[in-house]
Amino acid sequence: MTSAFANWFNGQDGCIVIGEIGVNHNGSLELAKKMIDVAVESGADAVKFQTFSAEKLATRTAEKAAYQKKNDGEAGSQIEMLKRLELSKADLQACQEYCQKVGMVFLSTPFDEEAADLLEEVGVEGYKVSSGDLTNLPLLAHMAGKGKPMIISTGMANMAETEEAVMTIQENGNPPLAILHCVSNYPAAPEEANLRAMDTLAAAFNVPVGWSDHTLGDAIALASIARGAKILEKHYTLDANMPGPDHKASLEPAEFADLIRKLRDVEAAIGDGVKRPQPSEFDTAKVARRSIVSACDIPAGTVIEDKHLICKRPGTGLAPRLIPLVVGRKAKADIAADVVIGMEHLG
User: Fold this and answer.
1) Beta carbons of 36 and 102 less than 8 angstroms apart
2) 264 HSE (CA, 13 A, CB side)
3) Does an H or E element contain 109, and which?
4) Are 106 and 47 in contact, with CB atoms under 8 Å apart?
5) DSSP type of residue 298
6) Which of 140, 157, 160, 333 is deepest in the core (most CB within 10 A)?
7) Angle, CA of 182, 183 and 184, to the nearest 5°
């Protein structure tokens, strides 16, 4: 619990961007490392893998999901697909070490207790819980006992299920926790995003809340940041046309980098909520605002009346709201027409 990520996880002010590699490495360590490089170049804060044993995750008769059948490009059962996408312990260790080398946080989603133990041995900095395992309370308890930060996705879940998951984690070690709102469809439709649910989760559990984005493009991801997401998870790939279940719902490298650039702009634009002029506006104010100006020649000693005054640019003199303080005063000296009036003109 002393890792930089754990400290940052608890105290960070901005949004953590997690590049979801998932299984888009297609079972290749070489591709996995290339994807880590893309995350570094794009400005992501962390990458996330999936750690599983195909034999423990699916039966031999389990069918692929509809989106998997459509996107995978390969015939066969779900377990056959999963076997192609497994990473060995050696592969995961190599990915973790490579992340350390290039300054990237290494995260992964374990799909069973042994996978969580394997990741502990490898040196994972935090655990991600998939939406499918939110109700797998024994697995949550097992991960929570390791004391490392946990990020749970809540796709398909209601508030009661989410609360049960949070309570299980709190009662079994209470590690740092974040919750991701999520819609478990690939791709998810924008009209189903329901980003206001993040507000509900934040109010209910008082932990950092974010968005695991399965929508196409970057619009909903950026909207989630404006809505207050503290973590954004987004799938990316080296090539959306590669065979595999998740590539077509993932951003390619240039799109991923563009998303993060836009995200940081949105994040910077949110500000602190205090309504005040920005330093860059001061020069504009001089040009665009108005001052009290003499509407005609005003001889010395004249008691100034409304008819003697007009408001014009620039905004370098007395503001129009001060007209009541000028009217009734005497001109100290002659004031020519079209002069910006200051206190030095008034007796």
Assistant:
1) yes
2) 10
3) strand 105-110
4) yes
5) B
6) 140
7) 110
Own/partner contacts of 122-125, CB < 8 Å, gap of 24 or more, are: 122/89, 122/92, 122/93, 122/96, 123/93, 123/96, 124/96, 124/148, 125/3, 125/5, 125/6, 125/46, 125/149
The pLDDT tens digits of the residues spanning 177-189 come to: 999 999 999 889 9
Report how far residue 149's alpha carbon sits from residue 143's, in angstroms, rounded to the nearest whole number. Answer: 9
pLDDT tens-digit profile of 49-80? 999 988 888 788 777 566 666 665 666 787 88
Q: Are strands 150-153 and 177-182 parallel, antiparallel or unpaired?
A: parallel
Residue carrying the six token digits 């002393």: 2
Token pair, residue 346, equals 């008034």
pLDDT in tens, 283-329: 999 999 999 999 999 999 999 999 999 999 999 999 999 999 999 99
Give residues with Cβ within 8 angstroms of 250, minimum separation 6: 20, 24, 235, 236, 237, 240
Mean pLDDT of the chain: 93
- pLDDT tens track for 129-156: 999 999 999 999 999 999 999 999 999 9
Of 312, 308, 266, the C-alpha closest to 292 is 312
